[in-house]
């Protein structure tokens, strides 16, 4: 089943491409050697237009950008359930603007980027999270105060500052299933790390974390992680409802598919009024 899921599209494109090439060879042979006018049937004639379009679409998906749909609440309030996003799969680097020396290469992950990646435990499952730790960094997380500290390779310690923004009145579905000791209260904060500013959601009233914490083998301290080479520490903007590096560890660079760039469409799946299902205010919104 995994083989079919991965290669069935390649097999179909290969078969269509074979027919397309054979048809062109046949037409060239008839035109130049038999000196006859070529008459194509309708199916083969349509194939001449369809195959190049398929190649262009597949090339764009493989090398330039790829669409995804958001199914979970782990990136609220940045990304909502029902958002359709576009990921960038390449980086454009300008070495010398005056000489117009532009280098296009595979996407290079950066801190604060929101990335789509393959799950470390199941390559068929895709996650989307925010990168907060780069190779060589040390991440310290306080689960009670929900504070994050980053110690860089140069031994410089940074604290991600959280400033209360506003109260989120509507609770996300599923909050009543959590282990709580008082009524749940979801608050929105603005986090700031250097020049990066973004919104996060924090749920007050959770007695215990719904996800187990990942303990690194070579680390003696709890809730402290040292990021190895070619690994990244990712976290969801919905701090208390996200399964991320805090619970299952780091992600590999080779598993990162691309950076989330834009929301091209959005549907509110919980809104029963079909006239208000489409979130027009989120269409073509840039992801920060």
Helix content: 10-25%
Radius of gyration: 24 Å
* Count of DSSP-assigned helices: 3
From the N-terminal CA to the C-terminal CA, the straight-line distance is 37 Å
How many discrete domains?
2
Task: Specify the biggest β-sheet.
Answer: 8 strands, antiparallel
What is the CATH homology-level superfamily of the largest domain? Umud Fragment, subunit A
Contiguous uncertain segments of 5+ residues: 167-181
Shape: elongated
Mean pLDDT over the full residue set: 77
| Overall CATH architecture of the largest domain | Ribbon
Q: Which percent band covers the strand fraction?
A: 35-45%
Which SSEs are present, and which pair or pack?
Elements: H1 2-32, H2 42-64, E1 65-69, E2 83-88, E3 90-96, E4 101-106, E5 114-118, E6 126-133, E7 138-142, E8 147-151, E9 157-159, E10 161-167, E11 180-193, E12 196-206, E13 224-226, E14 231-235, H3 245-248, E15 251-252, E16 256-266, E17 285-286
Antiparallel strand pairs: 1-2, 2-16, 3-4, 5-6, 5-16, 6-14, 7-8, 7-13, 8-9, 10-11, 11-12, 14-15, 16-17
Helix pairs in contact: 1-2
Organism: Buchnera aphidicola
GO cellular component, one term: membrane
Family: Belongs to the peptidase S26 family.
Question: What does this entry look like structurally?
Answer:
This is Signal peptidase I. The chain crosses the membrane at residues 7-26, 46-64. The structure is a single chain. This protein has 3 helices and 17 strands. With 288 residues, it is of the alpha+beta class. The chain folds into 2 domains: 2-65; 70-286, Ribbon (Umud Fragment, subunit A), CATH 2.10.109.10. Strands 1, 2, 5, 6, 14, 15, 16 and 17 form an 8-stranded antiparallel beta sheet that branches. A 4-stranded antiparallel beta sheet has the order 9-8-7-13, with no helix packed on it. It has a 3-stranded antiparallel beta sheet with strand order 10-11-12, with no helix packed on it. Strand 3 (90-96) and strand 4 form a beta hairpin. The longest helix is centred in the first third of the chain and has 31 residues, at 2-32. It is elongated and about 80 Å long. Residues 167-181 have low confidence and may be disordered.
């Amino acid at each position: 089943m995994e083989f079919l899921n991965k290669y069935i599209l390649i097999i179909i494109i290969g078969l269509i491409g074979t027919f397309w090439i054979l048809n062109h060879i046949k037409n060239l042979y008839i035109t130049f050697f038999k000196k006859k006018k070529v008459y194509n049937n309708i199916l083969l004639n349509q194939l001449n237009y369809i195959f190049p379009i398929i190649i262009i679409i597949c090339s764009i998906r493989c090398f330039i950008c790829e669409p995804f749909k958001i199914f979970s609440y782990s990136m609220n309030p940045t990304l909502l359930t029902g958002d359709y996003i576009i990921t960038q799969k390449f980086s454009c680097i300008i070495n010398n603007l005056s000489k117009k020396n532009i280098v296009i290469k595979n996407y290079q992950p950066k801190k604060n980027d929101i990335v789509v990646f393959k799950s470390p435990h199941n390559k068929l499952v895709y996650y989307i999270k925010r990168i907060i730790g780069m190779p060589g960094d040390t991440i310290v997380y306080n689960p009670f105060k929900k504070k994050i500290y980053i110690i860089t390779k140069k031994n410089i310690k940074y604290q991600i500052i959280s400033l209360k923004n506003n109260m989120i009145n509507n609770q996300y579905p599923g909050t009543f299933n959590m282990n709580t000791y008082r009524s749940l209260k979801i608050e929105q904060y603005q986090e700031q790390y250097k020049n990066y500013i973004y919104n996060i959601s924090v749920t007050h009233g959770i007695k215990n974390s719904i996800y187990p914490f990942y303990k690194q083998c070579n680390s003696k301290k709890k809730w402290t992680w040292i990021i190895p080479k070619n690994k990244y520490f990712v976290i969801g903007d919905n701090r208390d409802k996200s399964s991320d590096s805090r619970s299952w560890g780091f992600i590999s660079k080779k598993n990162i598919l691309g950076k989330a760039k834009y929301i091209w469409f959005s549907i509110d799946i919980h809104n029963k009024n079909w006239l208000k299902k489409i979130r027009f205010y989120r269409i073509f919104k840039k992801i920060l």
